[in-house]
Amino acid sequence: MEIKKAAEGLHPLERKILPYLEDGMLFMKLVEKSGMKEVEVMRALQWLSNKKAVSIDETLQEVAELDSNGEKYKKEGLPERKFLEAIKDSEKEVDHLGLEKEEINVCIGSLKKKAAILINKKDGKLSFSITPMGKKLLKKPSLEEDFLKKEFPVIVRELKEEERQAFENLDSRKGLLRKKLVKTRTINLTDVGKGLAKADIVADVEERLTPEMLKEGSWKDKKFRRFDVSINVPKKAYGKKQNYRQFLDEVRRKFMSLGFKEMDGPIVESDFWDMDALFMPQFHSARDIHEAYYVKDPEFADIDEKIIKKVKAAHENGGGTGSKGWGYKFDTLRTKRNLLRTQGTACSARMLASKDLEIPSKYFAMARCFRYDVIDATHLPDFNQVEGIVVEEGLDIRHLFGLLQMFAKEFADTDEIKLVPAYFPFTEPSVELFAKHPDLGWIELGGAGIFRPELTRPLGVNVPVIAWGMGIDRIAMFKLGIKDIRNLFSHDLKKLRESKVNL
Fold it and tell me: Alpha helix (H) ranges present in 370-432?
């Protein structure tokens, strides 16, 4: 019954190949005998293997193929024979043999070893004459000539003793043979396979049920192929977005669904928008943690002098905000230096100074940032930040805490959070958001606070502004179950195919 069921479930390619199958048969021999394409034979054998009808043994074997000189000598004969033919009737000098210099040198060594020639030297020139052994060699093909007549490629370990000797002689010569390791497949028939080989296979079976068959009722008189729905099938690697790219798109959609509008800014930023407009003093040690990459060309940015003047005043004396500022001389040339953006907050500064700013409103940005750092499981020199602001009259720290708790729940799927007092030059009060990862423990997700008036007023904003920035790379590690931040940007196809699709 098992053989009968297996026979009824044979694919057309399996039916086609069965008559040619023999136990212990080489794959390429089966391809040759069946006249089918290699891919068709391989596919049929894999299906038969799934039915436990055959087993395929794969081994690495050394094979020899003819190289360029080997192909030439197979057609024209070895140069040794031409050498002996040229001198069989009379002694000849080296220039009259009709062979290339390299061939002559090989022939002299080979024929001298076989005692087939005599070498004479007259007036500084070499001449050659044939010996009785040489005449004897001309009467029948040499071992090397017989070897070249074989069908190539040949499996080296299957050569007989005489063939191996000829092989080694030819292999020592330039451009005759080429050796390589190849995978050979041997097909072995199981009891099921032997039974199928003898079974009465029905050739005319239907592969699919068509609408026409149903409409006409002709399906009742047809024989359909049996399908085994329990059999293992290979996994399909369907096209999909890279898992981190998909996560970022999901974050973007979520912010928009919460009523946030997206803002943006350039990756090559100026010191002004990246730090100075954020009320970060030019001499302050807080800049050290940014470890910025400065740009050589163009070295300086073009910035509106009016807004530089307002920010300069805020740094030097508070700029009419009621603050004393930082009390130093602001460097207007330094503020124009170009760098790779070190923080997403630069996008917020640009938005606050923009004529398109709406009050009240909520904004977010997904910003690629760059800072010199030592690469490890939680740090990279380039990273993504999700940055945002809420601009509205009457905002206070309670609104900030509620917002951060919502972010931890929405984006990191955790209720275990800590809000720790922090210091940022541009916010007061300031906090850092930590969340607990099941494997990595407490991880910093970002910083937040309320922008100082020394920042907002020079940019033209006179209402409270809640600001926050989160390391979205680390949040992605929560969501995607990744322990090493480097795997977020992996090119490993196996990892990418096994990654989560739905977030």
Answer: 397-412
Q: What is the radius of gyration, based on Cα positions, of the chain?
A: 41
Instruction: Tell me the residue length of the chain.
Output: 503
How far is Cα 316 from Cα 335, in angstroms, rounded to an integer? 14
Peptide bond just before 360 cis, omega within 30 deg: yes
Q: Which residues are within 8 A (CB) of 160 and not within 5 positions of it... i.e. 6 or more apart?
A: none
Angle between helical axes of 27-34 and 38-50 (0-180°, round to 10):
120
* pTM (two decimals): 0.55
- Please indicate whether residue 123 or residue 145 has the higher confidence score (pLDDT): 145
> What is the DSSP pairing of strand 154-155 with strand 261-262?
unpaired
Give, in order, the Cα–Cα distances in Å from 64 to each of 106, 159, 161: 21, 11, 16
Comparing CA positions, the residue from 401, 368, 366 lying closest to residue 382 is 368
Query: If you write DSSP's letter for every residue of 197-221 in order, what string do you get?
Result: HHS------BSS--HHHHHHTGGGG
Place of tokens 């000098």: 93
Q: How far is CA 25 from its chain centroid?
A: 37
pLDDT at position 390: 95
The gap from C-alpha 304 to its chain's centroid, in whole angstroms, comes to 45
pLDDT of residue 288: 64
Answer for the pair 251, 287: CB distance below 8 angstroms, yes or no.
Answer: no
Give the residue from 169, 188, 196 showing the smallest Cα distance to 111.
169
Q: To the nearest whole number, what is the mean pLDDT of the chain?
A: 87
The closest of 66, 54, 62 to 20, measured between CA atoms, is 54
Each residue of 350-375: pLDDT tens digit? 999 999 999 999 999 999 999 887 77
- pLDDT confidence bin for 1, thresholds 50/70/90: very low
| Residue 463 C-alpha from the chain's centroid | 49
55 and 111 together in one domain: no
Question: What are 62's two structure tokens?
Answer: 């050394």
Q: What are the tokens at 154?
A: 């040949």
Q: Are residues 15 and 129 in the same domain?
A: no
Q: Give the residue from 228, 207, 217, 352 showing the smallest Cα distance to 279.
A: 352
- Does 120 lie in the same domain as 52? no
Number of domains in the chain: 3
H or E stretch covering 304: none
For residue 17, CA distances in Å to 9, 28, 30, 45, 226 come to 14, 13, 8, 9, 18
Tell me, yes or no, whether 11 and 108 share the same domain.
no
Average pLDDT over residues 116-141: 89
pLDDT digits (tens, 9 = 90+) for 337-354: 999 999 899 999 999 999
Which range of residues forms the domain containing residue 298? 245-498
Average pLDDT on 67-95 reads 90
